[in-house]
Amino acid sequence: MGFNIAIDGPAGAGKSTIAKKIAAKKGYIYVDTGAMYRAMALYLLRVGATLEQIDEKCEGADITIAYENGEQVVYLNGENVNSYIRTEEVGRMASISSPNPRVRRKLTELQQKLAANADVVMDGRDIGTCVLPDAQVKVYLTADSHERALRRYKELKEKGEPCELAIIEKDIIERDHQDMTREISPLKQAEDAVLIDSSHMTIEEVVDAVIALCTT
Ligand code: DC
């Protein structure tokens, strides 16, 4: 087993930003598991799967990961789908399809294989609790919902996209609820995870705090 750093937490807590920086500093591979759930969601949308058909249809999705120019590239049945998985529609479908046990089993296996032989920083919702229960470092990264909404609002404004802070915050609270209350692999802090609340921390402060934990 390589050195595994597991970072879990709610949407908008800054997991991917932090995980990418740690991976770059330590020369580890960054594994974005949300992108895999998004690729599965894209497939299900493309085949027009209803909620009842997710179980059967998910078997048609062959999802693999490659690293090109230091970036994680997600392949869906041989096609690079990185540019299609960040839409609201795909995000919504990912939230609906990710509680499905077959979808989770398929993607968990892929994630465990990636971590078996490499040093990885992996982020998601169930990494410390289910995917990598033996990870050497586990972090539960959170921030209060208003702060997370504000970060997302600034990001969208910078891109020139129309948005409303109150709606973003409402969406974030709804997604938290959905992720935390689902039956299978709900989002929760692993017993041995270190809680980091980034509400009043800079990105560099969070990165340093996680790196300080990598002493084993
Ligand atoms: O982090 P994200 O927004 O890219 O995640 C997309 C969806 O996938 C989100 O609804 C939560 C789900 N997900 C999950 O259930 N388990 C993971 N390990 C990662 C993401």
Description:
The protein has 216 residues and is α/β, with parallel strands linked by helices. It has a single domain, classed as P-loop containing nucleotide triphosphate hydrolases (Rossmann fold), CATH 3.40.50. Helix content is 48%, strand content 18%. The strands form 2 sheets. A 5-stranded parallel sheet has the order 2-6-1-7-8, with helices on both faces. A 3-stranded antiparallel sheet has the order 3-4-5. The longest helix is centred in the C-terminal third of the chain and has 17 residues, at 165-181. The protein is globular, with a radius of gyration of 17 Å. The chain starts with a strand and ends with a helix. The mean pLDDT is 94. The structure holds 2'-deoxycytidine-5'-monophosphate. Residues 11, 33-34, 37-38, 91, 94-95, 98, 124-126, 179 line the site of 2'-deoxycytidine-5'-monophosphate (DC).
Blueprint of the fold:
Blueprint lengths: L3 E5 L6 H12 L2 E4 H14 L7 H4 L5 E6 L2 E6 L2 E2 L7 H10 L3 H16 L3 E5 L2 H5 L5 E6 L2 H14 L6 H17 L12 E4 L5 H11 L3
Parallel strand pairs: 1-6, 1-7, 2-6, 7-8
Antiparallel strand pairs: 3-4, 4-5
The structure holds 2'-deoxycytidine-5'-monophosphate.
2'-deoxycytidine-5'-monophosphate (DC) binds next to helix 2 and helix 4.
